Amino acid sequence: MKAVEVTAPGAALTLHERDVPEPGVGQIRIRVQACGVCHGDLMAVAGQHPRMQYPRIPGHEVIGTVDALGGGVDNWQVGERVGVGWRAGPRDVTGLTVNGGYAEYMLASATEAVHINPCWDTTVMAPLLCAGVTTFSALAHSSARPGDVVAILGIGGLGHLAIQIAQKSGYHTVALSHSPHKADLAKALGAHAFIDLSLGTAVQSLRDLGSARVILATAPQANIISQLIGGLAHNGELITVVGGSEPITVSPGEMLGRRLSVRGWRVDDPRELPAALSFSDLAGIVPRVETFPLEEADLAFHRMLNADVLFRAVLVP
Predict the structure, then answer these.
(1) Closest CA to 195 of 166, 173, 171
(2) What pLDDT is attached to residue 262?
(3) Where are the domains of the chain?
(4) Are 206 and 174 in contact (CB under 8 A)?
(5) How wide is the angle at C-alpha 160 spanned by C-alphas 309 and 166, nearest 5°?
(6) 159-174 per-position pLDDT tens digit
(7) I need a surface site. Which of 260, 268, 302, 304 has the fewest CB within 10 A?
(8) DSSP letter, residue 93
(9) 3-state DSSP call for residue 71?
């Protein structure tokens, strides 16, 4: 089979011919139809996980069909549509500690894999397996209620999904971006308002809208995030779903005076993924993607890092 591997920390993603893996006890083999390229894949390329071993096949936004069953598997049938996300087991991560979906075939835990609507366009929907569930979970566990102002910082791979999810959840959805040309796009995705960060008036604009109950940061811009805290309502919260090394700054007095909270969010509960997929199916959440063949995985990865992709890059074996 064709597989894209990282052979050492910092090495380029390269295409190889490998044997098709055989499923072990409790595993299924998946014929990969699509795999999203996520910023989390940088951890595989850079060797940022303590249990990384090389060579490694990255990729954790996978949709395909069940190709073979390992021993003891009775919850899947060959030919069923299947999805695999970040979680590969209680201690394993898809594409980091076990091989992922940058390949024609992969193995997955039969209990961690999720059923996928057979009517879905696999190429388009693959990003829901990480980007979708991440933004859905962050908003679902926030303090926002229908009618509240919810601001989405960034209109990229995560942000364009967060805007759709927020709007479908009944929030007064506000999109924030440095790119004024994205205003029409934000409205098309469902945003009720657009704030141009380049004008330097974002905090006042949020206050004019009634202030934000929640600001969801989908772009790692610590200085902008710090400024936007001033646009939070009383009891408001800033939630970030992206990493970064720069600090977010807020005074204790500001947090105390308006009872603000600042927190990060990641998905830990395996029940979150089926819930996010069900919501997306019912609400009509649709990622916008740019596709690449496996042979262009390194190009797709670096274009993703440089924010030079139409929202989400997806590899199609």
Answers:
(1) 173
(2) 95
(3) 2-130+268-316, 142-264
(4) yes
(5) 170
(6) 999 999 999 999 999 9
(7) 268
(8) B
(9) coil
Task: Report the CATH number of the 142-264 domain.
Answer: 3.40.50.720
User: 312: part of which helix (H) or strand (E)?
Assistant: strand 312-316
The Cα–Cα gap between 310 and 290 comes to 6
Average pLDDT estimate for 35-43 = 94
Distance CA 202, CA 56 (A): 43
What's the confidence (pLDDT) of residue 59?
Answer: 98
**CA-CA distance, 317 to 314, in Å (whole number)?**
10
Beta pairing, strands 232-240 & 212-217: parallel
Residues 289 and 127 sit within 8 Å (Cβ to Cβ) = yes
51 pLDDT above the threshold of 90: no
* 2-130+268-316 classified as CATH 3.90.180.10: yes
Could you say which DSSP state residue 130 is in? T
Contacts of 243 (CB under 8 A, 6+ apart): 220
Is residue 171 within 8 A of residue 148, CB to CB? The reply is: yes
In the predicted structure, residue 129 carries a pLDDT above the cut 90: yes
Q: Hey, what are 74's tokens? A: 């009775």
Q: Burial level of 315, CB count in 10 A (0-12/13-18/19+)?
A: buried
Q: What letter does residue 290 receive in the DSSP assignment?
A: E
At 297, the amino acid letter reads A
Write down how long the chain is: 317
Q: Is 184 exposed, middle or buried (0-12, 13-18, 19+ CB in 10 A)?
A: exposed
**CB 260, CB 144: distance < 8 Å:** no
Q: Which two tokens stand for residue 161?
A: 């999904």
Rg of the Cα atoms in the chain: 20
